[in-house]
Automatic annotation (TrEMBL):
Conjugation of reduced glutathione to a wide number of exogenous and endogenous hydrophobic electrophiles. Residues 89-217 form the GST C-terminal domain. Keywords: Transferase. PANTHER family: GLUTATHIONE S-TRANSFERASE GSTF1-RELATED, GLUTATHIONE S-TRANSFERASE RHO. CDD domains: GST_C_Phi (cd03187), GST_N_Phi (cd03053). This is glutathione transferase. It catalyses: RX + glutathione = an S-substituted glutathione + a halide anion + H(+). One of its GO terms (cellular component) is cytoplasm.
Length: 217
């Protein structure tokens, strides 16, 4: 039987929407992206209380919070060859959780301000880059990348020697970071750079990356 495609509300260029879409691509699910007009703010509805993107609909189920949506997708469509949460193995699942938290609370707060200041503010909002914010964030990011370099010198991926949701979570902001003038920073961390290249070589990631290239207005 064919299931109706799930719906993702929000533009593919959004980092949080991309987090969900890359998981849908990895599992080969049917989905439809419903773009949302930011200016109209039509995504503030009673079912969707915080006005966040993405929102996600599967039949009568409506979800928000991109990491929760992505986990739902990975559970619903899990196949033996695509097990990105590793929930069958307590220790592996724990490591996936650990590095997903590291992404949310340590990596993203260091890398995302650089993306905002170098790409999103100047290209989409017409705001100048705040170099002080960029410099402070680069210092934070270097400390984070030192930890990642040590981890990835021992394992091919963050949670172990298997690709997981933890790695994919790093895709959207790192992808945009690589379009900033600071992309060469990763050259100083060869194991991190090799890990990033392994992620970028994945068909699901390649497909999504092609839709996310920032276009100048």
């Amino acid at each position: 039987e064919t299931m109706a495609p799930v719906k993702v509300f929000g533009p593919a260029m959004s980092t949080n929407v991309a987090r969900v879409l890359v998981c849908l691509e990895e599992v080969g699910a049917e989905y439809e992206v419903v773009d949302i007009d930011f200016k109209a703010m039509e995504h503030k509805s009673p079912e969707h209380p915080f006005g966040q993107i993405p929102a996600f609909q599967d039949g009568d189920l409506l979800l928000f919070e991109s990491r929760a949506i992505a986990r739902y997708v990975l559970r619903k469509y899990k196949k033996n060859e695509v097990d990105l949460l590793r929930e069958g193995d307590l220790k592996e699942a724990a490591m996936v959780d650990v590095w997903t938290e590291v992404d949310a609370h340590t990596y993203n707060p260091a890398i995302s301000p650089i993306v905002y200041e170098c790409l999103i503010n100047p290209l989409m909002r017409g705001l100048p880059t705040n170099q002080t914010v960029v410099d402070e964030s680069l210092e934070k990011l270097k400390k984070v990348l030192e930890v990642y370099e040590a981890r990835l010198s021992k394992h091919d991926y963050l949670a172990g020697d298997f690709v997981s949701f933890a790695d994919l979570n790093h895709f959207p902001y790192t992808f945009y970071f690589m379009a900033t003038p600071h992309a060469a920073l990763f050259d100083s961390y060869p194991h991190v750079k090799a890990w990033w290249e392994r992620i970028m070589a994945r068909p699901a990631v390649k497909k999504l990356a092609a839709q996310m290239v920032p276009k100048k207005p």
